[in-house]
Amino acid sequence: MGSSGDGSLASNDGTGKGEVFHKGVAISMWQNSGDDDSNWTNFIKSNFPFKALPFGFKRFSGKHSVLQTCPDTWNRYEEDVELAAKAGCNAFRLSIEWARIEPRKGEIDMDAVARYHAILDSMEAAGIEPNATLHHFTHPQWFEDLGGFEKAENIQHFVAWSLKAIELFGSRITFWATFNEPTCAMFLGWITGMHPPGKILACITAGKVVMHKLQAHCEAYEAIKRTAIGKSLQVGLVHHHITFLATGPRLLRGLAAYAADWMNYWWGYELIHQWMLTGKFTWKVPLLGQWLEWQHPGGKPPCDWFGVNYYSRSVVTWYMKPWCLPGEVMTDMYYPIYADGLYEALMQSNQYGIPIYITETGIADKSDKNRATMIDKYMRAMLRAIADGADVRGFYYWTLVDNFEWNAGYLMEFGLYAWQPDGSVDRKLKEGAKALVRFFKALPSNLSALRAAAARLVKEGELPDHEQMHAEAEEVLHDLTARGHKGRRRHGHAMVAAT
Ligand code: BGC
Question: Which domain of life is it from (predicted)?
Fold first, then answer.
């Protein structure tokens, strides 16, 4: 198993695949191209936040949805694979949509299977390595109707889906992720109600959902490894690494810190971090205390590689308003550019002892003024982590073409290539995206050569010094606290109160 070391692609595995540093883009097919039979499609049709909002709140997802128009990589895959290759990619992360392949229970759509094969043909022709995710927030409506991941008895359906996907595409795809961001989907779907099933503060069910997904990861992993082809596949898990920093006026900072602690635990990295290290899952709920516990019988969970999705750290006020610290630049999402956090996420994930891929990073930046800065800073933070010993083997930018950002609709523009739902812009390379193209073209694809390049860049003073980045952040925090506000530290991230 990967966690014990024998699943990772060592340099001498005979395939040479472990020697390649992945320079990639990431997409989820649903966000990019929709599809009729998914729970998310149904959610848009029926639910918050796309229809009337309670208490007179306005929609914040814009006027178009993926149901009416989309960038449509599903049909324009040849162009899009070529655009990725032009940007210097040698890898492409995509979701294999369960709802497209099995729209009704037990019924396989052979046209959809053929389309995925055609997409893989294009990638192969362009020398691009696919990296497939089996569950990127979406699943068939029939699975949702059975109760989805709220019910332990439904885990078997996910395992069967994983085996079907391997049977259909396993000979062509080496890198597989079971789930994309289990904690993020849980938080948005069961705590805030912004993702399906749209439940609010369903704290106990939320815990069951994450636990069942982690159990499903383990069961799917074991089942895949038992297949004839299983041993040659790399099966991983993708996690959203985020930390929350509490701020607020003196009297309310306790409240802010309390909320941030819960966010760090639920949505942030803590829950998964503990599980990855020990196989122990513990679900705690405010006021009720510990509610669920599960220990993977094999100790550390089976996992050949770990996917880190990193965008930023979230700085919140006592009433959870997102903002940033002095000197930081806000993105269009609820967080600033924060490269130091990527370094920390990678060093922390390195403790699992398996290869790490940055499976997503990027910026929502309509103005495109900050994209190049973000790419430059995050790329250097990653190179620094590699030079400091982190086994990072890939950098996937989110995303290729502007697409549908879940509850925020088309308002968030993450793409390397611009696309507008009104048809005014179609796949135009953004100025800021050129920074990524330059990095991808300049950096070696060979892993050992990349590691050597990272070490050389450190010597040449081209990469940030983590200690220095940290000291600068401390200075900002000190300035804030010196104005009469106490700070408090947690897991290396300062929690500070400011006016
Ligand atoms: C998700 C993507 C999403 C991106 C940008 C990640 O949490 O995996 O689906 O679009 O972040 O917010």
Answer: Eukaryota
Lowest mean pLDDT among 55-64, 160-169, 243-252, 427-436: 55-64
Q: Does some domain include residue 154? A: yes
pTM of the predicted model over 0.70: yes
Tell me how many domains the chain contains.
1
Residue 406 Cα: closest atom of ligand 1: 10
pLDDT at 288 over 70: yes
Map residue 57 onto helix, strand or coil.
coil
For residue 417, being part of any structural domain is answered with yes
Residues with CB under 6 A from ligand 1: 28, 31, 180-181, 184, 240, 309, 360, 398, 405, 414
Residue whose Cα lies nearest atom 10 of ligand 1: it is 405
Find the CATH number of the domain harbouring 414.
3.20.20.80
Boundaries of domain holding 415: 10-483
Asked whether residue 452 is domain-assigned, the answer is yes
The identity of residue 56, as a single letter, is: G
At a CB cut-off of 8 Å and minimum separation 6, what does 31 contact?
66, 136, 399, 403, 404, 405, 406
What is the distance between the alpha carbons of residues 122 and 134, in angstroms, rounded to a whole number? 20
Whether residue 491 lies inside any domain: the answer is no
